[in-house]
Amino acid sequence: MARVKRGKIAAKKRRKILKYTKGFRWSRKSKERAAKEALLHAWSHSFRGRKEEKRVNRTAWQAKINAAARGEGVRYSELIHTLKANNIKLDRKVLANIAENEPAVFKKIVASLKS
């Protein structure tokens, strides 16, 4: 019978796991067992993190809009309400960007809502 050499698939699997853990600290990047454990946690945290990032960004946009709106003498809630009432479809991300980078344009938006 011919000789059967084993371990190709297992080695490939190990290399794949260690490739994912590149940049991890200590033995978590080089030892298979520690790497597997680290990946279990990392991937579950990354899933949660993607959801969390959206919440954090929205809060930041609201703060930027509120700061700019208060400068024009309007509260955030009033601004959003009048935008919806006038059927102006600017989302918070765009509004925050305008408020931060184009204050003159933001001033015109608020002025058009006041009249």
What does this structure look like?
The protein has 115 residues and is mainly α. The protein is 74% helix and 0% strand. The chain has a single domain, classed as c-terminal domain of poly(a) binding protein, CATH 1.10.1900. Helix 4 (92-101) packs across helix 5 (103-114). The longest helix is centred in the middle third of the chain and has 40 residues, at 32-71. The radius of gyration is 26 Å and the shape is rod-shaped. The N and C termini lie far apart (92 Å). The relative contact order is 0.08. The model has no long low-confidence stretch (mean pLDDT 95).
Q: Output the CATH topology.
A: c-terminal domain of poly(a) binding protein
CATH homologous superfamily heading: Ribosomal protein L20, C-terminal domain
> Average pLDDT across residues?
95
Total DSSP E strands = 0
Number of domains: 1
The secondary-structure element order is HHHHH
CATH class: Mainly Alpha
Strand content: under 5%
Q: What is the architecture at the second tier of CATH? A: Orthogonal Bundle
- Unreliable spans: none
**What is the overall number of helices?**
5
Tell me, what's the shape? rod-shaped
Q: Main β-sheet: number of strands, strand sense, barrel status?
A: none
For this structure, the quaternary state is single chain
Q: Mind telling me the C-alpha Rg?
A: 26 Å
Structure class = mainly alpha
